[in-house]
Design goal:
This protein is mostly helical and 108 residues long. Helices cover 81% and strands 0% of the residues.
Length: 108
């Protein structure tokens, strides 16, 4: 099987994500919170959280709600995973801020 895309892995992940969203009956805010919990449980890298920041913002999730999810799963996944998740979320936010600042500078 060959692909004509320059980003076949990202395209596949995007298609899987869209399919999951279409098949899931959860409201968008609950879907994103569930995914954040799953990312924390598996010690996902910052880029995985980065992919969920825009949907989280669009779902009107707050930092407090994200913290509540981490607090709720801490007894299950452990403190090391929760601290790692908090660090990775902060790194992802830093990437978003850096990109926004760069775009602002280019536009000025």
């Amino acid at each position: 099987m060959t692909t004509s895309s320059e980003t076949p892995v990202l395209d596949t992940l995007a298609a899987m994500t869209l399919d999951s969203i279409e098949r899931c009956g959860l409201p968008m805010d609950m879907l994103i919170l569930t995914r954040i919990a799953a990312l924390a449980a598996m010690d996902a890298p910052p880029m995985s959280y980065l992919a969920h920041l825009d949907p989280a913002i669009k779902a009107n999730l707050t930092a407090s709600q994200l913290q509540d999810v981490l607090v709720a799963i801490a007894p299950i996944v452990g403190t090391a995973r929760v601290m790692s998740a908090a660090t990775h979320i902060a790194e992802a936010l830093g990437i978003v801020i850096a990109v926004a600042e760069a775009e602002t500078e280019l536009g000025a």
